[in-house]
Write a structure and sequence with these properties.
The complex is a heterotrimer of chains A (about 300), B (about 260) and C (about 350). Chain A has helices at about 5-30, 40-60, 65-90, 100-120, 145-170, 170-180, 180-185, 190-220, 225-240, 245-270, 280-295, and strands at about 125, 135-140, 140-145, 220. Chain A is mostly helical. Chain A has a domain at about 15-225. Chain B is α/β, with parallel strands linked by helices and about 260 residues long. In chain B, strand 4 and strand 5 (about 65-70) form a beta hairpin. The chains are: A mainly alpha (about 300), B alpha/beta (about 260), C mainly alpha (about 350). The interface of A and C includes residues 90 and 99 of A.
Chain lengths: ~300, ~260, ~350
């Protein structure tokens, strides 16, 4: 029982990260019906760009907070450009192709991005710089750090900002309309191309922030980190109901907590047969379970007819 | 019991808050051509889908040939002897006309993986039979000359006929046609009428959804009229044409020639 | 099939047969490594044809196909190596491997039957990963798979006392291990291609195609789509299992590393790039994707040395990069694949208009 609170905290932190990445998947799927396999790689590139920029600037003498700030900004810009480029170059020509074609293209782009990252940053694990002061807190037997607080707080802020975008702006309304019925939306004067591009760009920006968080939390970065993260975040999106913005947020946090509890208790649950290195399995089990028993997710999916 | 082929008892279907079918009861006799008409949205295709296993009724049920019909899967309905065509024509576009009909024989044939790989005498005989029957059915519906063409390249009228041929390949006792005359001109409709009469003549009972009232009245032995999910009339065409509720349902338009 | 006896095809077949028989010696002149590459290419042909049943014939997007390969490989490894001290002969193990792979095929397929395309892909991907994770970790408390270290010293294929490993003297010729395996693989390939062709043009093959074209219509005419789909999974999986067994014997060593998601993607790429559902296309796709990267690996280093004076990009990352690009480019410009069946080419050409 004494690890319950700790696992809850860990789960909340990890879940916040999943939520941010899940939003990227859910927005694109809601509007286009496409699983953007390359999104995980975009997040990874965000982490690596932030790392490189911060380290180089700090080495040049800038104070760490400035170097870090510029690093995060650069990551966001690069990822947004990458997201936009992906849509424009790889996916847009295939908008009316049978579903299999864009899926394979997405897989291909994911491989391309991963290998480009490997060529640029190398195969080794890299240390992510400490951008924020690390202070430890204790509460009721559990401990948490300032980094964790920052992650959860930043996530909350970004998610709120996104909700405001979706529900309080014209662009957001256009996105919702396009997600429901692209054909009619375009008849009503919505520029579908721009809306779709916006979905990719916004999703990538969130992904960049998530990437920086992952780097700050685990203090390492690696060219292969995007794949598993992406898969789990997609699971979170499905869990909450694909296409459902609120669902992606809830799904992300929930998945983080499930994983934390699973990892913490799996030893006890299986009498020592399965150890904590099976932890990745939880996401897959959740995914398979949701798709089998409640495919529309916990909060209902929100996809309309495909463009 | 042998006169009644199909009996629907208080079949009901809801979709969320909308009641598509309230409580539909009707009977179809063996060897009849039975028509199901009604304004758009009346529930005709929903009834079809309940009968053929695409939907599961929320209330009531069907009796086919005296036995309850629990078609919780569409292939069950076909196995029991109920075949259907679709309002929007659902052919296997990239297969030839002949192949479409050959697939129709699936439910009455048996060859499995071992048969496919080893092609023993029984499998070979079955395959030869399948091809022979397919060609016969294509001839029967009048599109034998298009046997090798891809289904998606056939003309609209030929596609409708092909769908009927495919349904007949399953050796149904009840053939359900969902608006087979939609989009046809007078000549084509006349040809369809002859085909349906031939089908009845050769021993298959026919259930027909149609909007072409002239066709229905001239062809069907009995007609049921649905409106807003209710059956408002079920009788011979002459009586149905004059029924005030029917006329009103069609907004005062004169029903029949 | 009825055209086999005419003179032109007979000549063609005779030429191909001679080429096939001579090939390992021609290729072997460049070193046994090339014969091994050839052998792996043929193994990939098996895998691609197996996946083709699931993806090409039945239209089910399986991203976890490598799991069946792994099952077949580990079954052989467990029954013919020092690990458990068992040394069963191959003709006994292969059917068991195929059968077990079949069972897994049904297990993996069953939950996915109601899922639509992309979800099916993700779930099968998940299953594939789960199996790999288990193979990586089933070394405690009971050591079944020996974890990440894998199982080694696996018995080679043996017919009586004739072993396929090492050199032998036959008909006055010295023939090496890889060359012997080549002939075994070619024979198996002929059988597998034959089985695939038979399946395609059968009642079951037509049912698969019907499901791929329009599942609702298929159900309406009486096809039990659930069972037919499971059959596709089972058949496809069994081919994977057989390929896995041979792989195990040939390589002498298995570890979870050989069964990654990238392998599943690679095999899918072979099917899609080659020409989904079209057996000749799939074979072409498999051979191309298996051999070209190896050829590239040999060329990349010297070419870069010649141009840049040093190696900028190592062959491994270049290979994967080119592979990813190939996927994107082919989907953009030739979505039906390099050698599609005539119907499919038309189908996709119309979409582009």
């Amino acid at each position: 029982m004494d690890i319950l609170l700790q696992q809850l905290i860990n789960g909340l932190v990890q879940g916040s990260i999943y939520a941010l990445v899940a939003l990227g998947y859910t927005m694109v799927y809601g509007i286009m019906g496409l699983i953007n396999f390359a999104h995980g790689e975009v997040v990874m590139i965000g982490t690596l760009v932030a790392l490189t920029v911060s380290v180089k600037l700090a080495a040049a003498g800038l104070p760490i907070w400035l170097a870090g700030g510029i690093g995060i900004l650069s990551a966001a810009l690069v990822c947004m450009a990458l997201g936009w480029g992906l849509e424009r170059v790889a996916y847009r020509p295939l908008r009316h192709a049978p579903r299999l074609t864009p899926l394979i293209t997405a897989i291909g782009m994911s491989i391309v991005l991963q290998n480009l990252a490997m060529m640029i940053w190398g195969r080794n694990y890299m240390k992510f710089p400490v951008l924020f002061p690390k202070v430890e807190f204790h509460l009721a037997g559990a401990h948490f750090t300032s980094i964790q607080i920052i992650i959860v707080a930043t996530s909350a802020v970004m998610m709120t900002a996104l909700l405001l975008l979706i529900y309080r702006t014209r662009l957001g309304m256009a996105m919702r309309a396009t997600a429901q019925n692209p054909h009619v939306a375009s008849l009503m004067g919505v520029n579908i191309d721009r809306v779709i591009a916006a979905a990719f760009v916004v999703g990538s920006a969130l992904g960049a922030v998530a990437g920086v968080m992952v780097g700050a939390y685990y203090e390492i970065a690696h060219y292969q980190m995007g794949f598993i993260l992406g898969l789990k975040a997609f699971t979170a999106a499905v869990l909450g109901g694909i296409g459902n913005i609120g669902g992606a947020m809830a799904g992300g946090i929930l998945l983080g907590i499930i994983e934390a509890f699973g990892a913490g208790y799996i030893g006890d649950l299986t009498g020592g047969f399965l150890g904590s290195h099976y932890q990745d399995i939880f996401a897959f089990i959740v995914l398979i379970g949701v798709l089998m028993f409640r495919p529309s997710g916990l909060f209902g999916e929100k996809t309309g007819e495909r463009a | 019991m042998s006169e009644l082929l199909l009996e629907a008892r208080e079949v009901a279907k809801h979709f969320g808050g909308v009641t598509a079918l309230h409580s539909i009861s009707l009977t179809i006799r063996r060897g009849e051509i039975y028509g199901l008409i009604g304004p758009n949205g009346a529930g005709k295709t929903t009834f079809f889908n309940c009968l053929t296993g695409l939907y599961i009724p929320d209330g009531g049920g069907f009796f086919f040939d005296g036995h309850p019909l629990v078609a919780d899967a569409p292939h069950e309905a076909a196995r029991r002897g109920i075949a259907r065509t679709f309002q929007n024509i659902r052919l296997f576009g990239n297969m030839s006309a002949r192949e479409n009909v050959m697939v129709g024989r699936h439910v009455r044939t048996h060859a499995g993986v071992l048969g496919a790989i080893f092609r023993g005498p029984r499998t070979r005989a079955e395959e030869a039979d399948i091809v022979k029957l397919a060609d016969e059915l294509l001839r029967y519906v009048g599109i034998a000359h298009r046997a090798d063409d891809l289904a998606k390249n056939l003309s609209y009228g030929d596609q409708r006929r092909l769908e009927i041929a495919r349904a007949l390949a399953t050796e149904p006792r009840l053939l359900c046609l969902d608006e087979p005359a939609a989009g046809m001109n007078a000549t084509e409709t006349e040809g369809l009428r002859h085909l349906i009469e031939d089908i009845r003549q050769d021993g298959t009972t026919v259930l027909l959804i149609e909007h072409d009232v002239k066709l229905v009245m001239g062809l069907c032995d009995r007609v049921a009229v649905l409106d807003y999910g209710e059956k408002i009339c079920e009788d011979v065409p002459a009586v149905v044409q004059k029924d005030p509720a029917v006329i009103e349902a069609y907004l005062g338009g004169s029903v029949g020639a | 099939m009825k055209n086999w006896l005419n003179p032109r095809s007979a000549l063609g077949i005779a030429l191909i047969t001679i080429a096939l028989i001579a090939l390992p010696f021609v290729v072997g002149a460049g070193g046994q490594a090339w014969v091994r590459i050839l052998n792996f290419a043929i193994l990939y042909v098996f895998l691609a044809l197996g996946l083709n049943i699931v993806v090409g014939f039945a239209g089910l997007l399986d991203l976890g196909y490598i799991a069946f390969y792994a099952v077949g490989a580990y079954v052989y490894a467990l029954l013919a190596s020092p690990h458990f001290g068992l040394h069963w002969p191959i003709w006994a193990i292969l059917p068991i491997g195929a059968l077990l792979a079949c069972v897994f095929g049904v297990l993996l397929g069953a939950p996915t039957l109601k899922l639509r395309g992309d979800y099916l892909a993700i779930v099968t991907l998940g299953f594939g990963e789960i199996i790999r994770i288990f193979m990586n970790n089933l070394n405690a408390p009971v050591n079944i798979t020996n974890g990440a270290q894998g199982i080694s010293s696996i018995d080679p294929v043996k017919l009586g006392s004739f072993s396929f490993a090492g050199k032998s003297e036959l008909f006055g010729l010295t023939i090496t291990g890889p060359q012997k395996y080549y002939y075994l693989l070619v024979l198996l390939a002929i059988v597998i291609i034959f089985v695939n062709l038979r399946l395609q043009h059968s009642r079951i093959g037509r049912a698969w195609q019907a499901i791929r074209e329009d599942e609702i219509a298929a159900k309406a005419i009486g096809i039990n789509t659930r069972n037919i789909k499971l059959l596709a999974f089972a058949m496809g999986a069994s081919f994977g299992g057989i390929a896995g067994g041979i792989f195990s014997a040939m390589q002498g060593f298995v570890s979870p590393e050989s069964f990654s998601l990238m392998e599943s993607v690679m095999i899918l790429a072979m099917v899609v790039l080659g020409g989904m559902g079209h057996i000749p296309g799939v074979i072409l796709g498999a051979l191309l994707l298996a051999i070209l990267p190896e050829a590239l690996r040999y060329a990349v280093v010297p070419v870069q040395q010649a141009i840049f004076g040093k190696v900028l990009i190592d062959p491994e990352s270049l290979r994967m990069l080119v592979f990813g690009l190939a996927l994107v480019l082919v989907m953009r410009w030739r979505p039906a694949g390099l050698w599609p069946s005539p119907e499919r080419k038309r189908e996709l050409a119309e979409v582009e208009e």
